[in-house]
Amino acid sequence: MAHVMVKICMDPRYRPGGKYEKPLEHFLISIGAEGAYQVSEAGASLQYAKLACEPALLDRLKTARDAGVKRYILIDHLTCKAFPLHFPGLKPEDEKKKHLETLGKARQWHELHAPDISFEMYLQDDEDPYHFERIS
Ligand SMILES: [Zn+2]
Asked: Which of 3.10.450, 3.40.1050, 3.30.420, 2.50.20 would CATH assign to domain 4-135?
C-alpha cells in the first residue's frame, strides 16, 4: 500500500499505546490504507492555514510524487491542542467549525497543486475516536 500517504496530527495520542493508536489503525484498514506512508504535523490541516508552511507543503508533495503516491489522506481530530494555540480564544464548541475551514483550505490547495493525486479528508472524533467523519 505504498501508493498512499496519510497525514495526521503530531498529537502524542497517536503514538503506540495512545488513545488514538488502535482507532487509526482500524480506520486505515477499513479504507484500504493500511501500510501507508505516514506523516505527522501539528494540527494536520492547520498547515494549510499558515502561509509560512507553503514551502514545506510543496516539499512534502514532491516527496509524495517521488514515492509514487496516488492517494493522499488528511486526518484532523477534535480536541486538537494545536488549534487553540494558532487561533487564540478559540472555544471548544467552535473547534469543529475551524477544522472545516482549514480542511476546506487543504482541499483548495490540493486541487491547485496536486490534481493528479486523489485527496480525502476526515475528522476524527475524540469522545469516540473510532468515528472518522468524511469531509468533502
Ligand atoms: Zn492535534
From this structure: 3.40.1050
